[in-house]
Amino acid sequence: MTQHPVVVLDHVTRRFSAAPALDDITLSIDRGEIVGLIGRSGAGKSTLIRCLNGLDKPQAGRVLIDGQDITPLGENALQPVRRRIGMIFQHFNLLSAKTVADNVALPMKIAGRPAAKRRKRVLELLDMVGLADKADVWPSQLSGGQKQRVGIARALASDPLLLLSDEATSALDPETTQSILDLLAKVNRDLGLTVLMITHEIEVVRQIASRVIVLDRGRVVEEGPVARVMASPQADTTRSLLRGLSPTLPRDLAALLAPAGDQALVRLDVHGPDARRPLLDMIAQATGHPARLLHGGLNDVQGIPYGRLFIALGTANPQKVQAALAALTPHTTAIEVLGHVPRDV
Amino acid sequence: MSPAMFDLLLRGLKETLIMTGVSGLLSFLIGLPLALVLVTTDRGGIFEAVTLNRVLGLVVNGLRSVPFIILLVAVIPLTRLIVGSAIGIAAAIVPLTIAAAPYFARVAEVSLREVERPLIDAARAMGATRWTIVREVLIPEALPGIVSGFTVTLVTLVGASAMAGAVGAGGLGDIAIRYGYQRFETEVMVAVVAILVVLVCGMQWLGDRLARALDHH
Predict the structure, then answer these.
(1) If phi over 0 gives left and psi between -120 and 50 gives alpha, with beta otherwise, what is residue B138?
(2) Contact B136 A106 (CB under 8 A)
(3) CB within 8 Å: B140 and A85
């Protein structure tokens, strides 16, 4: 077993005409990790993933797969490398002229495994993805989620070192997405397979990735453990990608916000064990007035709670507001007075 | 209809079938590889060779732009070289193939081009060799279209083989010209046309069925 990372990108730059799709990217992925690579469309995610199996070539920098520099390799020399990398796609890319079993068997056929062994392995793989009874049907007879399961079985057929997922759940409904993510997490757990998922859905990253890399205009703008990045995003891109996930002030409340009024309204972001503190009591003790939770929510990233709360302090007195902020600040990742609201909302 | 006329029509049908069948088979064997070369050597193709692609495209267009009746006469020296005679069924097969192979190549090319790029990339990502991509992806995925295209080619060959009657190739077309047209035997003309209609309809029906059976989209 080798010690080096499964994937290393070393100052990789890829340009199409003038604009760089990848601009001096350096990153590495360790064995057994699930890394989420997130960014808006056009951020360079697809180009990056295509550079990992040589479908695309950087103009500068090196791409190392399991320690081997693949950048100088030609189409023929890349083939053995590609056979160690499984890939799943947004639109599945199953061959319509082959049955489910033959689709799954294709990577093994490519690798030159004998037919008898292929059939046995295909059935094992289909069993693993929960489609043991679909071996001999055509892909067109399957639902989207089933097709992606076949895609996963096919990607695993060559016993890969690395699984690349290119927006694998973007064409699926939320429930199916969930089941596919569960399957990928299971594959990672049971086989110790390294997974790189590119997605524009923060939810996907939240659910199964251990680490997240945020890409914007071809650059890595943020990187770190998912729980940390989601709780306190540093880059604007990350914040805007996360926006859909955090609660925002409902319109009726936002309309009532005024520079002056009965009670101060604060927004606080909490993360980790602090999210489970008696925050309302802490405010009440600091101000001497009961605090009211007007809106907000807690979520969890792989067991770690985080969230955003909108609380009316019960007073507009600047000193008392300051006291409340002072009491809360050590326990929040962000806190802000948004304005004032009437006492009867 | 007299028994003699019946025998004549039967022989004509047989000759037409042989001419269509043999030139159809040859067109398939020449046209499919030609179509594969046209698709895979194009810009961005898996065997990219743009100059070869341009030259081949020009040759195919050139052959396709010659009216069949002219081609029939123009290739007589070549026909003599290959089959030793410029008259008869075997002699007709040469110009028929030269006309039909580029035609079928273009028709098959369209189907091969419809195989989506992501499918080819998926096979590349699996580490498939280029030949494997041709064998496992391009041809199987395009097969329903190729079969439909071949059916069209065969039907066109039935019509063209009737013209080949003009160089003494025999077949139903020859009978229609000599008996039906030149001798005003309307009965023969009607019979020939009826046989051709049934033949073409049968071929089309069979081709459609086969294409549908192969299509799992």
Answers:
(1) alpha
(2) yes
(3) no
